[in-house]
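During the no-cost extension, the postdoctoral fellow (Dr. R.K.) reprocessed legacy sequence entries with the updated structure-token encoder. One reprocessed record is reproduced below for audit purposes.
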Amino acid sequence: MPAPTRLRADACPGVFATHAAADGTLARIRLPGGALSSAQAFVLAEAAEELGDGSVHLTSRANLQLRAVRDADELVRRLSEAGLLPAPSHERVRNILSSPLSGRHGGLTDVRPLVTALDHALCSVPELAGLPGRFLFALDDGRGDVAGEGADVCWQALPGGEGALLLDGADTGVRVSAREAVPVLVELAEVFARVRGSAWRVHEVDPGPLVDAALRRGRRVPPAALPRTGPVPVGRLADGVVVAAPRFGELPAGALRPLGDLVVTPWRTLVLSRPPDGLVTDPADPGLGVSACIGRPGCAKSRADVRADARAVLSALTLPSPGVRAHLSGCERRCGKPRGAHLDVVATGEGYLVDGTPVSTARLAEEMEGRQ
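Re-encoded structure tokens follow.
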């Protein structure tokens, strides 16, 4: 499969390579496995208040963003001292998803040690610093939550100590042990880096060389239909675990400080060990049914202040079901849209298109609720 011709360079933002947004500089902080210690959370809260817009923004890859950053050099200094930038050369490629509840609640195996090992191994290979910023690793503890997030390379635990190797979310039929999970994922990234041409993602290249490389460390069986559970639901779980959601994935600095050690999930939620104040923990809360891009004034391409419109929608909705049911976008790029089924709500400048149907802003809540 020939790699696509790219008309622009990979501009995925980081901390050293920031993005110039309409509201100022945007910095994205990678959190392998979504893990954030209480000390690191405190540093980020201070940085958000003193250097940014006062909030920490969650992403769909379990990372965090600071917006309107006024002093990028000072931000680098603070994050480095907090241990959030352990490998500057590899900063943009430390994209590792893992099952957020692993080692805390359920799952076949605790993948947290594998996340740490993968991060160290990835950063130790100089050639992998050139991976595209969109390339995504995943380690699934067997429940099938992050395995469905379309990672380029993923190891999903199976009963008996083995795991399935997935490429772009599909089972290759290759089985490797937990001991070999990290080496095989790193080797696949190296193969991709050699063969990718101008490709950014695994689905854009011939998978043959990657599968062949994996078979040197594993065995082949017929591909199987593996478990897929989707996002971890918001609420209080057993073992004292709480899953909470900030509205629209935006967490004010003052709300972040008292949370303690936490895990950021790919669904813009947080896994905590204590009940939080000011965050959604009720799985029936209508706010869980609506997500939105940053919109105006943060994005120059947006045709509307979509978060203000989304808040107005929430005041009128009575959706009883958990999970994202609608996503409001300021333009056709649909930034931050969820992977699952949802209403596609796109600003036009004169209202919105709801799954392609023109709707005035005043009738947006009525139209969205009528389509649930």
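The two ends are 39 Å apart (CA to CA). Residues 15 and 72 are 8 Å apart (CA to CA). The remaining legacy entries will be reprocessed before the final report is submitted.
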